[in-house]
User: What shape does this take?
Amino acid sequence: QHLRLVDHFNRCEGRVEVYKNGQWDKVCATKWGINNGKVVCNELNCGTYVSSYDYPTKSGPILLSGVECSGTESFLLDCKSDPQVSTSCTHDKDFRVTCSGDTVRLSRWVCRGRLEVKHGGTYKTVCPQSVDSRDTDVVCRELGCGVSGAVLGGAVFGQGTGPIWADEIQYGGDEGSPTVKINQNNCTHTDDVSIICFGYTDFRLVNGPDRCSGRVEMKYGGQWGTVCDHGWDLRDATVLCQQLQCGHAEAVLGPDRFGQGNKSVFNDIFDCEGTETTLRQCPISPWTHSTCINRSDLGVVCSKFKQLRLVSEQFECAGRVEVFYNGTWGSVCSNRMRAHTATLICQQLSCGDSVSLDNANHVPGLKWLDNIECTRHHTSLWQCPSSPWGDDSNCDDRDVAEIICRGSVFLILYCCASYVTKHVFTS
Assistant: This one.
């Protein structure tokens, strides 16, 4: 999909935006005519063109100007346009297009709301007995909203007015106009059926050390977008990790941990219990156009591929710190590392608290992690801020962290070129 109408509850009316070069941009109304509107409505499968009107906005890039369609094009991007956006194009010339609309619509938001079916030129609410999950799946796909997540009776999105579709709706299994099977149901507007579509069709974690850590991205309407970090918690992240076959969630991380995205930002809040197997099973907030920016992109760290160890020839709970990344073990550097970080590492390895933090003597090889800064609010090393994985620009062989943990470990006392080994007993 390379065209959309936005800032309206109905997907068939709104400000025109086109997708090109990895982003959604506005279209200038210069030279806009009826044939342009016809192409827009046809491309979106939104019926016939009704009208266009100016809709000034404040910001955002403008991609196209001087668009002139003949009316026979299949896509707006196929129409003639100026090779460069005219300097006279300002956001005062942004505009909306109104199409006649869908055969079906959800009355409150684009992808969730009271189901209404157009019949005889009039939209009618629907009895719950008139539809099943196959019908609602087709409705959601036709609206570009993925698949049906829930079918609800009892007018949960408010009661409609006017006529009620009391006959059974039947789709052939593919998108298209509904047909009627005469089977009168006796219902009122208190029974109006509603649909919650699950518009997100795919999920991924990107720009992390492996496929199970990174910036969260979700796919909606054929386009990937980042996720606003507001409202996400470990329960939501755990469901995402399980869905991606990445174990459980170790951390939910805030802005910029895995870099800023350059795509749309989604602001839906998932209300998971943590026991669901997919995010589709979790209730979500109404679909809204996000007020977040890419500086608020959400990051998640899942448990799979995350390994931590202390390396020593003799001791399990003492030695240089190593993490597993990119299919191999590498050292952790001590720059900016403080006693609380060392204690957190010991506790994560079930080795009690830390006794000492020092630099190991000349450790060659890979350096995977540096500038780790944990606080008392962190419960896992994977939650702590650090330099990007694999960035060893400020770490040399003398900067590798070495930790001795307390609790059933050996404290090594060096003296006069030899050492004595003692047990340290803790209560």
Notes: The chain is about 10% helix and 35% strand. The longest strand covers residues 13-20. Helices lie at 34-43, 133-142, 234-243, 339-348. The radius of gyration is 29 Å.
